[in-house]
Specification:
The C terminus is likely disordered. The protein is mostly helical and 789 residues long.
Amino acid sequence: MRSRFRPKHQRLILQCYPGGRAGEKHPNSSELSYLLFYVSSRRTKLLKVARYLNQKIRQDLWRGRAGNVQVSLDIATALIEKCPEDLNVFADHIVSIITAVLNSNDLALCHYTETIFDVFCMHHNGALFTDDSDFIQNFDNLIKLYMDIRSRGSERDDWTAVSLQAACCIASSGALYASSSQLRFQISTILPVILDQLKKYSEDRFIQLNNYLTSIERTQNTSESTRVNRASISSITQDNPHDENDILALRALKKLFDCSDTHVSQIRFTSRFVIKYVIDHPSDQNWVYSAVDLLAQWIPVHLRFVLLRSLYEFLMELPLSDTNSLLGVTQLMSSLLSSNVSLIGLSVLDVLHVLLSLITQLLRLNDVSPDPKREKLLNNLAHAIGDLATHLYYSDQIANMAEEILMRIRPLPFERRTVSSNGQPKGRSEPIALSLPTSTMGSTMASAINLEKFIDKGSLSFFSEKPAIVIGLQIIVQIIHGANSGTGGINRKIIPIQSWDQTEWALTSSDVQIRDAYVDALYAYFNMEISSLSESGTIESPDVLGSISTGIVFLNKLHSSIYDYALKNTNTSEDYMNINMILLSIVSRLGLIGIVHGLPMVLQLQDTVSRTQDKYSRNSLASLQAVILIYYSTVADKLGIPKLKKQVDERIKFVKAKKGGWDSNLTAPAKLRADRQLSKSTLSNGDARNEKQSVAVEDEDDEQEVDDEWKPLPSMGNIDRGLIIQYIKESNAKLSIDTVDTMTSVWSKESAVQNTEAAQHLSIMDDTSPLFTIPSTTKIRSKPLRVAW
């Protein structure tokens, strides 16, 4: 009788409940259909229906009628699906209903809320987040309740599943983007639950987990909503080592990264929170380092750069004293940069400037308080720059990156660079040109200003001190190695020789670390950036020497510096090996161009040593003689002059037969610095016979090593200039008269740079001859180019 006096909407709702005390109930289908028709045709009744359901579900919870609670949840779910456009009308009641069920502490009912919460998150557009403070508070409390529920009871995994399922729903909800504050709150609330579940995994198991997730997604009906089918998850996870919670956690994380173009801020906030989580949990970072490229793969291709941008923004915000955190973020950057993930849209120079600025600031701090961890961090930053070079995003990228370093090693225009007692130049660096990226992310003015300020912190006196110069040259090596080991479909331009102009001072620096670092950088450039000559080689790129005049000026300056370097009477055997390595690299990689600008210098070096031999020890003379003869032999071989080659090799054999007449460390091909270090290590371990390591070659007391009849005067090993000229003219008719004259002309330091204009008009043979071509390392195959010098 009481039901006859109830309002119609209440009667229709009550008719949906089946009778009996079954533990699991579902609405009567025909009655539910009529109720849905009733509210859809009378939208004003929606609020009344939702309010009554809210009241009834609380009564049933209090009376322990779990079956009726399930029916109420099903009715509420059906209402959302039937009237999604009017969800805002009764959204607060849905939130209240779910909250009441979660507070019941009934595990089965809490699991049962998954469907209604998923449907609610799917259809809620977030409009109420803009002006309804009560709803915002209630919804935020609901999210917190869902995430906190994992700590309930003894069945911890089952309760955690409720939290992770809710996290999946939130991660897929469009309401995330209603406001920036809601986005921050919801992401920061659900991510700890997600990451706590995943942090236990190693690299291999994390990849396996992703493969399982992919399998599950393929089995689900793609025509359905984004609802997670826990039944399908359970069926797949029964026979593998990953449980349902792991899959849910990974799926929720994936949803936060795999979003549309309009939700870029979601990627940024999620990335920053993941980074912070890693920093706050230093003992649980293994899974992140292995998974960072996987995270990037989930992001749409054209938005992946946002992940790296978040990393370097976070890096900028960390205090320099927090070395551990800086190490963690830097390792994440290297992990991403060294992966196969393409970061299209990345502002390469912004990343480079940030890393260089950080290096400079750390070097300054290291001067005050040296720290081994900081040394490791500096090394990691250098490697990160090398990793940045493994992916090509535009044709001039590698050349621009190298130029950004080399420009800081040059003496500054209009300003005298002073040299300190330990051999490094001082002076302020040129200002850094800031390149702000344009992207769909829409950088705010504040972030642009922060980026510029951070870069400016490291711009003053940038590479004015020895440690910065050394690490800068090491970075050049990293860039060249990265560029020539990476992948990419872009036809890049190689680093032109002109980029090295005004850096040649480092070759004659009094500081051995600067000299060695410069030699390593030059060797990497000649032997990796410029391809070796081949029988079928042609000039593939017009930018090998960049500006012709500037490129030739550098070659002349470089040979002038080699001349000064060779004549230093304090040289060690290591120094002569450096000279030998650079000279042979120039000949083997630049061919005739290198010989034209190098042979006159070496001829003059021979004459100078002959005149001033009293300044040098016997060992120094032996080393100089070896450098010169090896160079002649290599030039003869490169020019294809067998008679000259035979003459030089016989002289080398004669000199080697005399004790103390030859430096055995000097070979062709030259010994690399890495091989020399290995050789030293072997000797120091006693694995070789008692030989001397590379020491200063000025030992005048080592007379017992020299035959009495042998005086290692340069004239005994010299090859006459006239004889070389004669062999060149007679044996290689392909060379023009101007080329031969230039190649064998009298050389002086003063005239080397002044001859640039004349060199521009020097025609170097037919461009189809492989001897006079400079293949680049680019993949492009352009037409052969005739080069005039």
